[in-house]
Amino acid sequence: MNISIIGAGCVGLVSGACLSEFGHCVTCLDIDAEKIENLNHGVIPIYEPGLAELVKKNNAAGRLIFTTDYELAVAKAVALFIAVGTPPRDDGSLDLQHVLAAANSIAGHIDSYKVIVNKSTVPVGTGAKVKKVIEDALHRRGCGHAFDIVSNPEFLREGAAVKDFMYPDRVVIGFENTMAREVMEEIYRILYINSHQFVFTNIETAELIKFASNAFLAVKISFINEISQVCESVGADVQQVARGMGLDNRIGKHFLHAGPGYGGSCFSKDTRALIKAGDDAGVEMALVRSAIGANDRQKMHIMKKLEKTIGSLNGKVIAVLGLAFKPETDDVRESTAITIVNHLLGKGAIIRAYDPIAMANAKRYTLTGKPVIFCKDEYDAIDGSDAVVLITEWNQFRSLDLTRIKSIMHGNIFFGCRNVYSRDTVEKNGLFYIGVGG
To answer: What CATH number is given to the structural domain containing 272?
Structure first.
């Protein structure tokens, strides 16, 4: 099948690469000419494990091409996936200008039946808006070409996006008629015959599933973080509490890991967007609103713990390990690590930081006029520091040489924000350990 992807960001590029790996012929369009030029020369704009290999393989095979030409992208495709950005507005709503612009551009070249698939994260009602834009554009052209709208939200975790696309927990497809469903079944045939879970529903339900899923996970994280603060007050161990909870199959063990609060653009954006959708529907999303507040409080709690332990931060050298919002990505948007770094800088601390992938992006998000010393590796960052703060749990930070760390530090404070080390392991090497929830 001939498929086009509108937008060559993380979602669009991963979707295009994986669909071409399924054997489809995929045209990936972006209006950023420089990005397309780079992709045509094998330069991948984001870090995502396994993505570069898939792009290069399928591009070389002729199944994946890159263009800025809408006429080419629309003419070749039976299905067109819109996978452009939907940035948040100040009121929590999502800015749909790029989605609607893409729909209008598609409509300008439709010459036969097409299925237009919303892959972008969009609020309930977007399918209807996209349909109206295309209908209006076709009317202006004097055309009566048939088309269908489908909602196919993405559930791609950054750092595992290729795996999530190839081996999904579920594929959600919102549609209006059987022809569109048949096209989508053919696109995902390899997943369908391999018995992956499919949810076929109406468009509005499909649109809401994405927001409800991410908001629920955010609530779960905020809950265990609040429990971690109770644990610290009463002498309990949050890791054992979480394990005891997770053994109940109704609760499950996933997302019960206490830490410095969730980060990344998805949870922050989707929870606020769901609250806005609730407001528009006259529903008070009190639980989701509370989860956002709890997440903000957890970040402050972490920073206060460090300040309480070390005393005045002015002039103190703090080694920060990990800047991305999670491992296996270079994304620092809404990263808790960046929030902590900026707080420490504001208190006069000297920051020596290291992240295996995300340092280039982090440079754009730290406080202007308060330079961070970006180091060549974790030990370079720790050298001469008064305290080490491990924030993002990259695998290489899970087996640090603690004896070496003690020998090169000026101080001895080791703050493990992700609880990847036990207190005994750290303290037997002469370091003073701070964890979360115990």
So the answer is: 1.10.1040.10
10 Å CB burial of residue 103 (0-12, 13-18, 19+) is buried
Q: Are 226 and 219 in contact (CB under 8 A)?
A: no
Return the residue matching tokens 């397309």: 36
What's the mean per-residue pLDDT of the chain? 95
CA distances in angstroms from 138 to 106, 131, 143, listed in the order given: 10, 11, 5
| Domain ranges, residue 233 | 211-292
Active-site annotation holds for 266: yes
Domain count, the chain: 3
- Give the pLDDT mean for 350-370: 88
% of the chain with per-residue pLDDT over 90:
95
Closest CA to 257 of 269, 271, 245: 245
**Separation CA 52–CA 410 (nearest Å):** 41
Annotated catalytic residue: which of 10, 28, 231, 266? 266
Residue 368 has a pLDDT of 64
Helix 265-281 × helix 286-310 angle, to 10°: 140
CA dihedral 125, 131, 137, 139 (to 10 degrees): -120
What is the distance between the alpha carbons of residues 243 and 235, in angstroms, rounded to a whole number?
16
Residues whose CB falls within 8 Å of the CB of residue 157, separated by 6 or more in sequence, listed in order: 164
Question: What sign has the CA pseudo-torsion 99, 70, 67, 26?
Answer: positive
The CA distance from 112 to 77, in Å, is: 10
pTM of the predicted model as reported, rounded to 2 decimal places: 0.92
* Domain final position from 201, 221, 242: 201
- Same domain? For 402 and 344 the reply is yes
